[in-house]
Design a protein that fits this description.
Elements lengths: L18 H7 L4 E5 L4 E5 L24 H9 L1
Antiparallel strand pairs: 1-2
């Protein structure tokens, strides 16, 4: 089942996920994929710790994640 809803972004940059969706998700880890035109929210089937996904983050302009200034510049421009 695929369902789409329209949500507005509040003044803090947050969006709400419908309660009906969250009710069945429990404490699963969520994956949020951002692109220029859409935001995709997906629950992962296997139970992972959030830190297990840290190596999957890709930021093309950052070569050294330990350098917080370079990382911040790559993320925020």
């Amino acid at each position: 089942m695929e369902e789409s809803v329209t949500r507005t972004v509040d003044s803090m940059g947050r969006i709400t996920i419908p309660a009906e969706w969250r009710k069945n998700w429990g404490k699963r880890v969520m994956m949020v994929r951002l692109s220029e035109n859409e935001i995709m929210v997906k629950t992962l089937r296997k139970r992972h710790r959030l830190s297990d996904l840290a190596d999957a983050i890709q930021i093309p302009d950052a070569s050294d994640f330990t350098n917080s200034h370079e990382l911040r510049g790559a993320v925020y421009g």
